[in-house]
Amino acid sequence: MPGKKFEVQAINDEILEKFSLKNRYAFLNNNLTAVLSQKEFNFLREVQRFCLRFEKKNEITHGPNEDIYDWVPEFGEKGYITRQHSFDACDVQYDEWGLAADFMRNIALDIFDPQFAMGGGATVLAINPIYEHHENVPVRLEALKDLVTGKSPGAILITEPERGSDAVHQLTTCKEQPDGSFLLTGQKIFNTNAPRAKWLVTYATAEQNNGNTMAQFLVNSRWDGLKVERVNIPWVPKLFLGKETFTNVRVPKDYILGPVGKGREHLFEGLVPERISIAIMGVSECWGALAYAVLYSNLRKQFDQEILKFQGVGFLLSDLWARTTNLTLGLLKFCESYDEKYEKFGGEIPNNISQAMVASASQLKYHAAKMSKKVCYECANLMGGAGLCDNTLMHDYLNISRIQEIVGGSRQIQQYIMSLSLRTLFKMSVN
Question: In this structure, is residue 411 part of a structural domain?
Answer without folding.
Answer: yes
